[in-house]
Design goal:
The chain is an alpha+beta fold. It has 2 helices and 3 strands.
Length: about 110
């Protein structure tokens, strides 16, 4: 019997995170959709769990400089907090620090 303080092997954890055939199909559809978005020049902008789409024909990048390039100078109207654009909720994004998976099950393969 598995004990709560037992360390799972990398192979066991890999089995837990592998996608099911149905999930693989959905993931492939997502990858294709992302590719189509890039071809359509959609600029992806992610903040924590929110993935946004902006018109890449007009947006060079999103930064913290208060829209300094928009209309020739600082422009608070360029603050994305006040603008309307499409959003999809995803999981929380991460930076370049180490990430650990936390599984939902307490006993492997139960």
């Amino acid at each position: 019997m598995w004990q709560g303080n037992q360390t799972l092997s990398q192979k066991e954890i890999q089995k837990l995170i592998n996608l099911t055939p149905e999930q693989k199909k959905a993931w492939t559809q997502l990858a294709r959709a992302v590719s189509q978005c890039k071809k359509a020049n959609i600029y992806f902008y992610q903040v924590l769990e929110s993935l946004h789409g902006l018109n890449g024909c007009n947006v060079e990048r999103v930064d913290e400089s208060e829209g300094y390039r928009l209309l020739g100078g600082k422009n608070e109207n360029a603050n994305l907090q006040w603008l309307d654009y499409p959003c999809v909720k995803t999981s929380c994004s991460w930076a370049d620090d180490t990430h650990y998976v936390v599984t939902k099950i307490q006993e492997p393969y139960a």
